[in-house]
Amino acid sequence: MTEAAHDPLADLLGLLDLSDADGARTDEDLYVGTSQKRPSQRVFGGQVLAQTLVASSRTVPETRAVHSMHGYFLRAGDANQPITFGVQRLRDGRSFSARRVHAYQNGEPILSMIASFQEPDDGLDHQAEFPEGIPDPESLPNAADLLGSLDHPVAREWTVERPFDVRHVGSNIYFSVDDDRRPQQAVWLKTVGAMPDDPVLHRAALAFASDYTLLEPVLRRHGMPWRSAGVSIASLDHAMWWHRPVRVDDWLLYVSDSPSASGARGLSLGKFFNRSGELVASVAQEGMIRVPREKL
């Protein structure tokens, strides 16, 4: 019997389909989610960010969309255990709602996040410009083109199991870093298939994808590919702002740069543009990057 083809997009939608914990409630609204299985056995940070947004979105009116979130990663998550999401309703005003979400495993929070939601409104409008000289995504190799011949669990995760097609503009840093050590880069990305029309899922999926490459400008600046021996990398905090409607099943340009690295931490800032040139979201993350002393 032929093995069924793997469907990473179905996996993503399954991760975002939280249960309601059989109606259980304390002073929080409770939801439960599963995790993506990974070679490291650790929960992917983008996954738990996306799930907290889905959980908090279920407690606000459908007309209120998330416009910002600020989260701290407190502990490494175990990808083999479910995650419980507790949503506290901080405030519901005339236009805005605020929610605090804790993601729990073994009774301890692994992520703490506050998100804000807003009714549609009119106001001032301007944005950063779409960068010049960016090639079309169709002209660039995807991860499978670059890594598909490797028989390694991480290569399989990046080429087969990711629900997003990620294509670097210029060089990637999977195995090496070229002579261009500027702390800047751009990637095109989109889901590997069509998504449902639910805007909550698109915004949550964008949070999921925002954690893929955001720290790469820090590593690029110091000539460190992902496969660098002895290097320990972990996300510390993550902030995101959604500016305009977005679809993640259309190509998005993810431009990022790192203004600073110090104290075993690196900061990266990112912008998402759609193919029409609209700035749809901005993101910031500080990560722990510990390097063996002999490499400093």
Description:
This protein has 296 residues and is of the alpha+beta class. It has one domain: Porin (Beta Barrel). It is built from six helices and eleven strands. It has helices at residues 8-16, 45-57, 143-147, 153-161, 199-210, 216-221, and strands at residues 29-33, 65-73, 83-92, 96-105, 108-118, 164-168, 184-191, 232-242, 252-262, 265-274, 279-290. It has an eleven-stranded antiparallel β-sheet with strand order 1-3-4-5-2-8-11-10-9-7-6. The chain is globular, with a radius of gyration of 19 Å. 36% of the residues are buried. The model has no long low-confidence stretch (mean pLDDT 92). Keywords: Hydrolase. Residues 182-288 form the Acyl-CoA thioesterase 2 C-terminal domain. This is Acyl-CoA thioesterase-2. Pfam families: 4HBT_3 (PF13622), Acyl_CoA_thio (PF02551).
Quick description:
The chain is an alpha+beta fold and 296 residues long.
Chain-wise SSE layout:
Elements: H1 8-16, E1 29-33, H2 45-57, E2 65-73, E3 83-92, E4 96-105, E5 108-118, H3 143-147, H4 153-161, E6 164-168, E7 184-191, H5 199-210, H6 216-221, E8 232-242, E9 252-262, E10 265-274, E11 279-290
Antiparallel strand pairs: 1-3, 2-5, 2-8, 3-4, 4-5, 6-7, 7-9, 8-11, 9-10, 10-11
Helix pairs in contact: 2-5
Would you identify the CATH H-level superfamily? Acyl-CoA thioesterase, double hotdog domain
Order of helices and strands: HEHEEEEHHEEHHEEEE
Percentage of residues in helical conformation: 10-25%
Instruction: From the 3D structure, determine the CATH topology.
Output: Porin
CATH class: Mainly Beta
